[in-house]
Amino acid sequence: MQYLIMAYTDEKLWPGLSAAAKEQRFFAAYSVYVEALNQSGVLKGMNRLRPVAEGVTVRVSEGKAQVLDGPYAETKEQLGGYFLIDVPDSEAALSWAARCPAAEHGVVEVRPIWEMRQP
Amino acid sequence: MQYILMAYLDENVWPTMSKEQQEQGMAAYMAYGQALQTAGVIKGSNRLRPTSDATTVRTTGGKSQVLDGPYAETREQLAGYFLIDVPDLDAAISWASRCPAASHGSVEVRPIWSIQP
Amino acid sequence: MGNAAAVSPEGGEQARNTAGLVARRSYGKLIAFLAARTRDVSAAEDALSEAFALALKDWPANGCPTNPEAWLLAVARRRAIDAFRGRRRGEAAGEQLRIMSEGLAHAEAAPEIPDQRLALMFACAHPAIDAGIRAPLVLQTVLGLDAKTIASAFLTSPAAMSKRLVRAKEKIREAGIPFRIPARDELPERLGAVLDAIYAAFTEGWTDPAGADVVRRDLTEEALFLARLAADLLPGEPEALGLLALMLYAHARRRARRQAEGEYVPLAEQDPSQWDSPMMLEAEGLLRRAAAMESIGRYQIEAALQSAHVFRCRTGEANWRDVAALYDALYALVASPVVALNRALAIAEVDGPQAGLQAMPDAAADPRLAQYQPYWAARAELLSRAGAAQEARRAYDLAIGLERDPAVRRFLERRRAALEP
Fold it and tell me: Rounded to two decimals, what is the model's pTM?
């Protein structure tokens, strides 16, 4: 079954971290995590997202597109990236979610993929 | 350039729709997916199960705290995403505005972090 | 070519003058051209600044090139490529010479550099860019103003302004905001954002019309330049002509706005002989051209209002009904409390102060209005005319408390003093 592991972190904390902290907290930690995912063969896709300030939100009302700069919601933590995995059950998914570095300094949300029935 | 289009919808709306309306809604998404396919811009997409099936995990000092439900209790929730490859932000915005979710909710567009050579 | 030769004072002076002239005339053009493909405005700024620095070394020694723009472009491009590759070239003389002679070779062969400033302005005013930073961004990228100058004009700290500008330019690059003039169906709205940014720069320059604050820079000339640029590059867009007309009307009255002693003079009391007539004629002509295109918009209406005020002051003929009608039209487009306020004042002229007071927007409903000096000044004026001296005095007190400009405060204080006891 496919699950989406979503890593939420507080973007505002990042600039304040020392280079060493960034290296350890992010680069090293995610390197290890991704390596583990790859080794296990469960990883189906992943991406890191640019900060929310670099995005836009689009709404269409009465046929007209409205473009606003910034994210849909101004929450304390923001989606920084995701991992798409294929595992036997939700326990396995949660186990991977708990190992995601974001679980430690942010929040990780796990959701099953809604498989679309093929016609 | 790669962008992720994130569809945010009010989950309370879908169950209140008639079967016919739901079918129309599904058809709209299928048509949208098809258009992305035909244009050759789609790199991946997924629909997510509702937040009632979501779990949130936090760890402190090695101990995990697992909670039922999504990270944020916002009126609209992430319902799915489309990963596209297009020349610039205007193209991404154009595709986002065509997503059915843009008319009933919101579509957030964010660039994917590209790996520098 | 020799080594770094001793520079003659005249040669140095001339080189600096030429570089200065090129900077003023071509900076924005060069930035736009350099940044268009990569969308990397910061890199273009760095590369061009290094090119100018090199020019100030090379031109005094070897004479100004026949095509200084092309020279700078060639050198800047080379710098940008090197920076991108991460190989920071040192100060080795040989390398310098090679870059400069490359510049010269290109300059001799180069045709006119295409003007992509409009595309640059559309990128700066893109909906993805935070509305509050659009005007500063246009001022920095098209005119080369530094963050410190811009910050002081917008009353923010240079550090904060710098940071926001850096982020905005990062967004253009990372989010892929294109340098493109929008398609027909999007153009009016997108152009509106560009014009709003230019107008914001103009009105910021306005809050110091006496130019008395030596630290704050007057941006009106820069904003006028940008408005002219937009009108020149989009002659078929009536709103671009309308904005220029509006700004010219306002700018034409700058000398009449202050008395010799620096006292503030409101429009109704200004001496028309102090107005810049040729400038007003130009504004009039632009407004006529815009009207002929039959596509009314916010800036055309505002310019038409200016024209109506000028007409009334010159001829003494009351045209307040026309003015009120124009405000009705403007309010339909821009339902802002400020427009509602001015509309109420016009209505007061036609139907009396009570009617004006009734037409006023409600400060309770819009807290920003409660902090807006002209709102209280207008209320005070109408209350005074309606015979409510006590309430008028209170309103003047509020207005005075909200006004930054000492000359305007003195004006309001005089009005308050003139009320019946």
Answer: 0.84
